[in-house]
Design brief:
Layout (H helix, E strand, L loop, with lengths): L2 E5 L5 H16 L5 H11 L2 H8 L4 E8 L2 E9 L12 E9 L8 H15 L4 E7 L3 H9 L3 E10 L2 E11 L2
Helix pairs in contact: 1-3
Length: about 170
Amino acid sequence: MNINISRCTMVDSRKLQEIAYETFKETFKVQNSPENMKTYLAEAFNIYQVENELSNPLSHFFFVSFNDKVAGYLKVNTGNAQTEEIDDDALEIERIYIINKFQNLGLGKYLFNKALDIAMEQKKKKIWLGVWEKNEDAISFYERLGFVQTGAHSFYMGDEEQNDLIMVKRLQ
């Protein structure tokens, strides 16, 4: 089993766009209307949006590869790149996504550990994330890692308002 984590740069923008689009669609298409999915994917993962996010010095992307095939990615944010004003001493995991055929291989845990390493290097006191309230597998995954729900916020999928649970893990 060969697992590798590598930082994404602007050179990787098309591959990141492809993986982001694929993983988001796989994860949420069954529970959302085709119209809302199409609208969201076009807004969130167009190449200009991906390149804009990649160019933000307070956001960092990483690919995880399994046997030399990109299997998913991680996005973390600090400072004002965070999607909510939580704390200056916090790191946000905005996205951990694994392509379906690579799930249940422990790759999400590798990406979480990368985020944890970054948080520790930056002396953050907590890691937080938002997870859709209907994404029970992800909620269970984060609870096993020590995250607890501390709140919620609205998220729009096209024209449908949905709820993300805010989950926090305190660090030593």
